[in-house]
Amino acid sequence: MRLRVDLLPHGTYPDVVVVVDVLRATTTAVTYLERGADALLLTATPEVALALRGGEEGGPYVLGGERGGLPIPGFDFGNSPAEAAGQNFTGKTVVMNTTNGTGAAHTAAQTGKHIFLAALTNAHAAARRARAAATEEIAIVCAGTDGHVGLEDVYAAGVLAEYLLAMGEFTVDDGARIALTVRRNGGNPLEALSSSGHGQHLSRLGLGEDVRFAAGLSTSTLVPALVPGEGAPEGTL
Ligand code: MLT
User: Fold this and answer.
1) Helices in the chain by DSSP H: which ranges?
2) What angle do CA 97, 176, 133 make, to 5 degrees?
3) Which of 89, 65, 86 is nearest to 77 (CA)?
4) Atom of ligand 1 lying closest to residue 198 CA
5) CA of 102 to the centre of ligand 1 (A)
6) What protein family does this chain belong to (predicted)?
7) How far is the CA of 163 from the centre of ligand 1 (A)?
8) Ligand 1 atom with the shortest distance to the CA of 24
9) Mean pLDDT per 10-residue section of the chain, whose length is 237 residues
10) Alpha-carbon distance 207 to 215, whole Å?
11) H and E: helices and strands count for the chain
């Protein structure tokens, strides 16, 4: 079994893909499920999300997302996991569109067979799900920020890699070796996230609570699994 870490989304994925966007899309996605959401849809653009919900208030869809860390006009929520943790999404389908994370998931879904969303909050459960589904390769894909590598995602990829290496034999690529090194030298999760460029950006926006929330290691056993194309509306995952 191969284990690979892409420091940014690229290339093709023959088997299992674990998408990581710790600050904040995948952390928030896990939280939506923890707070009762029936399903998640990840759209390619904000317009697809807005069209899906239409003008109906109180319908099945709730829109969450951000641009540059700030909410998208017309959306019900931003992309704050700490905010989502205080809501009840029971009976709702949460439609997400974010700057980096949902795009990374769409890239993965173009070729991957099984796509899982992972954060630090569901890291051990995500590693178990990926290991159980994989037959030849597990690719951990870091979303990054605006096309730049994100320390927080590489650190989380290192956490996932450590869990996976404890679960069985893997040949690892240089990306996985880099992620393991970042994990082993990055301090605890909060130190790593707080030292990242995007973590500092969020803190400057007054969103430091999201950084602290995202550092909660394996606090959830829920793993969002995206099934490309199956019944999902056009332009969504
Ligand atoms: C993203 O998906 O681009 C990130 O989660 C951005 C953010 O919400 O801070």
Assistant:
1) 25-34, 46-53, 81-84, 101-109, 123-133, 151-165, 174-185, 189-195, 197-204, 208-214
2) 65
3) 65
4) 9
5) 9
6) Belongs to the ComB family.
7) 25
8) 5
9) 97 96 98 97 93 81 90 95 98 96 94 96 98 98 97 98 97 98 98 98 96 98 84 70
10) 13
11) 10, 10
237 CB-contact burial (10 Å; exposed 0-12 / middle 13-18 / buried 19+): buried
- pTM of the entire predicted model: 0.96
The pLDDT value given to residue 236 = 73
Q: How far apart are CA 217 and CA 1, in angstroms?
A: 26
**ipTM > 0.95?**
no
The per-residue pLDDT for 231 is 59
Could you give the 3-state DSSP secondary structure of residue 159?
A: helix
Distance CA 68, CA 81 (A): 15
Q: Which amino acid is at 113?
A: K
Q: Which residues pair with 145 in a beta bridge?
A: 148
Q: Is the shortest distance between the CB of 34 and ligand 1 below 6 Å?
A: no
In degrees to the nearest 10, what's the CA dihedral of 118, 138, 111, 193?
30
Who contacts 170 (Cβ-Cβ below 8 Å, separation ≥6)?
1, 2, 3, 138, 164, 176
Q: Tell me the pairing of strands 93-97 and 114-118.
A: unpaired
**Residue 42 is inside which H or E element, if any?**
strand 39-42
CA 134 to chain centre: 19
Provide φ and ψ at 109, rounded to 5°.
-75, -15
